[in-house]
Amino acid sequence: MQSGRLMFRRHGTYRRQDGSVVPRFRCRGCRRTFSRQSFAFSYYLKRPELSEPIAKGLVAGSAHRQIARSVGCHHSTVTHRAQRLGRHALLLQHLALRNLTLREAVVVDDFDTFAGSQYFPCTLPTATGADSWFVYGTAFARERRRGHLSPVQRHRRARLERTFGRPERGSVERAFRSLIARLPAGAQARIRLVADDDPAIRRAAAAFPSVSLSAFANPTRGPKGSPRTPEARARDAALFPNDQLHRFLRHSEAAHRRETIAFGRSYNGLVERLALFTVWRNLVQARSERRPRDGTTAMRIGLTDSPWSWRNVLAERLFISRVRPPTEIIEVYRRTLLTPHLRTERRHALKHAD
After folding, report:
1. In 74-101, which positions are buried (b, 16+ CB within 10 angstroms) versus exposed (e)?
2. Which of 14, 20, 114, 273 fits a 20 to 30 Å CA distance from 99?
3. Are 294 and 288 contacting, i.e. CB atoms less than 8 angstroms apart?
4. pLDDT value at 258 more than 60
């Protein structure tokens, strides 16, 4: 309000194709007109009713063409809507953590996956609450293909690296530092991290004086079916929240399975889909499907008092200029996270809308 008056006034209405009437307004400052629809998630969508079924299909692991056949639209519609849902989820997750105070230990670990083929691996580090199982954040880092390679595979890797460049050294450590820096802790709070004995995590945690790290080395395990050692039991119990999340991801998303032909197409798409899965896991899905009355992980940390529906998640359009996320989120939001083998990847650079 300014001088006791609203900064806008009514400016007529318009009728949508579904018969609903939407009020319009005029800004007293810039004199531009807008409608109530300008602040809805369905802004500028021809078929807004598809957002919820597409979101459900994405978190269930369906491919874009499968979802398109189910809801009755073109597969490009699903692709574009998935990008909008991912951008919305990135901002919603950041907005949810803005006023939180961390009151539990956080389990961090990397999550390896691929974009396009196994020659373009990447890792998506995750941070999960040790008690609540709430997903506090994710990050991204490009990696180099490793493991046992045949001479032909080594030759092809070298050729691709000459063409598209080799991943920067220390990218995984920088991703963990970014993940730790975005944890919702107060200025004087001490963050307790639990992780395996990964050198990248150790170096990233050492960069923060307020972080204490409990590292559990991955013990040597016997043949499949053999009893676990006490060291293996301690490690599995400490890292269970993150291991469970990763199993859930590989079960629900075909692109993340160990042996698959359904690789994600781009780095931006992988991060966007993980962001949507994170919001669904935190706010919509029950913490335990066997005990749904226990509520969601967001209820465990006091973020919400009841489970959300997709209508709640998509109730309001979020603006990047108002949420003001960190650079790492802006890079994915604008889709400027370059995928080496994609030359025509679509960017998100609108002139009159976020």
Report:
1. eeebbbebbbbbbbbbbbbbbebbeebe
2. 273
3. yes
4. yes
